[in-house]
């Protein structure tokens, strides 16, 4: 069985993920520290964690299994999911991979250091329709890859 975990607090593609999950009949966990309306779909579970910087990440990392899918922008969470044999996608459709996660973590640390010193003050570019479309396409192919992984267990 393949499950989907959404790091839901600032995720711009919750609705898109839920539509794809419903089409495939996949259990989906919306993990948040609050402020999200519970969905009416019995395949969707809203998980409310205690407020805190990594509470949702810790819950997801503690529950995700091999061949599951995580939707997150959080690079350390993605690394933890990949360590467990899961798949991880950014909301813009980019996939986190075993080959690229080390570089992504290093780049995150570098950028944080530059922001802390005031050398970089801007954030990422705004999320747009192209990102949403790319995410939908990538999620569909990721679900298929997860099915293949789950069958090979």
Describe this structure in words.
The chain is α/β, with parallel strands linked by helices. It has one domain: Rossmann fold (3-Layer(aba) Sandwich), CATH 3.40.50. The chain has 5 helices and 6 strands; from the N terminus they run βαββαβαββαα. The chain has a 6-stranded mixed beta sheet, with helices on both faces. Helix 1 links the parallel strand 1 (3-7) and strand 2. Helix 1 packs parallel to helix 5 (129-151) and helix 3 (75-83) packs antiparallel against helix 4 (98-116). The longest helix is centred in the last third of the chain and has 23 residues, at 129-151.
Give a brief rundown of this model.
The protein is an alpha/beta fold and 153 residues long.
- For the record, the count of structural domains works out to 1
Helix content: 40-55%
Strand content: 15-25%
CATH architecture: 3-Layer(aba) Sandwich
Major sheet details: 6 strands, mixed
Structural class: alpha/beta
Secondary structure tally: strands: 6
Radius of gyration: 15 Å
Tell me, rounded to a whole number, the average pLDDT: 91
- List the secondary-structure elements in sequence, H or E: EHEEHEHEEHH
The shape, in one word, is globular
């Amino acid at each position: 069985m393949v499950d989907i975990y959404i790091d839901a607090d600032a995720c711009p593609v919750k609705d898109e993920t839920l539509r794809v999950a419903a089409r495939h009949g996949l259990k989906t966990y919306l993990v948040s520290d609050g402020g999200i309306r519970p969905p009416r779909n019995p395949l969707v579970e809203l998980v409310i964690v205690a407020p805190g910087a990594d509470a949702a990440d810790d819950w997801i990392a503690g529950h995700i299994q091999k061949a599951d899918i995580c939707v997150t922008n959080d690079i350390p969470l993605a690394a933890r999911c990949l360590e467990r044999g899961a798949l991880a996608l950014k909301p813009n459709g980019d996939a986190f991979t075993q080959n690229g996660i080390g570089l992504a973590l290093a780049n995150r640390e570098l950028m944080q250091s530059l922001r802390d010193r005031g050398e970089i003050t801007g954030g990422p570019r705004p999320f747009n329709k192209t990102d949403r479309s790319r995410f939908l396409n990538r999620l569909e192919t990721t679900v298929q890859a997860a099915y293949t992984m789950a069958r090979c267990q």
